[in-house]
């Protein structure tokens, strides 16, 4: 007489691996009944610890749709450091995205997004490390997007801020970056009224261009060691502006977004006059308003001069920080990243503070 348990465990394991948990349970129960061993139904066999079952099982009563999780059923989610690629109109960008953690409970409200544009020779990981923006964003509940300029678009991985085809709304890099920003905002429940863009050097120049080209996407801009939109339309003009500053004080058309500008007065790569021109243009667009200038020192001892333009109700809409003795580097950044100046004014913290005080109407 054949032993009824001869093939039981092999067949039950096969069914479990196929995601047929109910069938495996029935097989065990039927074999026990045929062997005259009644009693409580045995649980289905468990797969070995190293076995991966690529299937999701859910028991749903006949005719009843699966329940959709309500706001109170939102699980906790850890922080994420994602890697992605985005294609748009024949161009492709890689990017990194920082998503802060969420607590269990009601679904979180839509969260802000900061787009960070690296400088020449940098990439997303280097820029995130150097600016320490992810650590600040974790505490504030802010997503941070780091697009990467591919080397085939620029040999030094610079954003092409100095070319006419990359200074307009519906063309080139501004169009590509705005499309990527919209995609991330739609996929990650971003508050559309609180999207900001900041950058260093060439990335700062492109951030100012995006402020001009897409005021319907961004609520405020941050420029560190960058140049105003419109100072150049080719490489020779760009080099001249970097060396000596804009040819005229009103090199770029003023844009109406709130702006925070950082520049070192010892910057020998991008002349500090560019930061002053950018801040002046932003202030004119805001109606100049009430300006106040203060001088101080960062905890590390670096001195700075800060000029703030306020609205009649006292709200800061343009800030110009001149960091004394700072070269071409991100103020207050981490030594683990390139083009940083640890110990100075914390540009990342000041930009994030400024951004979160503004919403796009």
From TrEMBL:
Pfam families: Esterase_PHB (PF10503). The keyword Hydrolase applies. InterPro entries: AB_hydrolase_fold (IPR029058), Esterase_phb (IPR010126), Plant_Biomass_Hydrol_Est (IPR050955). Residues 63-72 have a biased composition (Pro residues). Keywords: Hydrolase, Signal. Residues 32-78, 284-309 are annotated as: Disordered. It comes from the Bacteria. NCBIfam families: esterase_phb. This is Esterase. It comes from Pseudorhodoferax aquiterrae. The lineage of its organism: Bacteria, Pseudomonadati, Pseudomonadota, Betaproteobacteria, Burkholderiales.
